[in-house]
Amino acid sequence: MLIATALAENIAGNASFLENWWNAVSPKLMDGTANFWETIYGEIYRNVIMEGRWLNYLKGLGVTLEVSFLAALVGVILGTVLALMKLSRTPWLSKPAGAYIHLIRSTPLLLQVLIINFGIFASVNVDKIIIGVIACGLNSAAYVAELIRGGIQSVDKGQTEAGRSLGLNGWQTMRLIVLPQAIKTALPSLCNEFIVLIKETSVLAYIALTDLTKAADYIRSRTFSPFTSYIVSALLYLAVISIFTKLVGKLERRLRRSDNR
What we know:
Blueprint: H1 2-13, H2 15-31, H3 36-49, H4 53-87, H5 91-105, H6 109-120, H7 128-154, H8 157-165, H9 170-200, H10 212-223, H11 226-260
Helix pairs in contact: 2-3, 3-4, 4-5, 4-7, 4-9, 4-10, 5-7, 6-7, 7-9, 8-9, 9-11, 10-11
């Protein structure tokens, strides 16, 4: 919000200058006499600045991040449960978990979103953000489950034996000893799954959720300039993903240093 407010004040302070420049450039764009830089400016002005369209991008980005964070939370919680179920020696726990993971990983996210929106919630008035969180969360849970399962299986069996020798039961050993180490091992992969999830939320535009992709599509319908509006959207995705990628890289380096101590 602080960034958006500062950006709004900056744009408002330069509104008259930008508008005067646009008034001088727009006739040249109409008659085809504008040079390269005037054409670039005209595209940016129409698709970003005019009528406060930059706010549409920011709102869409906010929706994208909101859905991604909530879906990631659902995915981690449900994925951990599924991983424990799949590793269970009880067939009525392991088989349903395995079937769910196989089903979700074998079908496209877009189809899952359409089924949930137009099938399950067809007759119910539910906020599109909630539908997006449910669809993306259920999809992410299947992949998180496999990451957590791999992390659990990578923990040395001696850790379990040590826990049992201390008088802990099976669940206490898993919760207090094995699972924390498994999550630490799988954490970089879980962060990468979140990065992938941010990009995958773009399919929610198919159910009219105004995320970042849908915001670009809306602006394209007003300016009839698809290239510029989608490029702006892509640059925002690139900026967000680049930030999270750097954070994941720092996390991985910190984990490696802690393992070497």
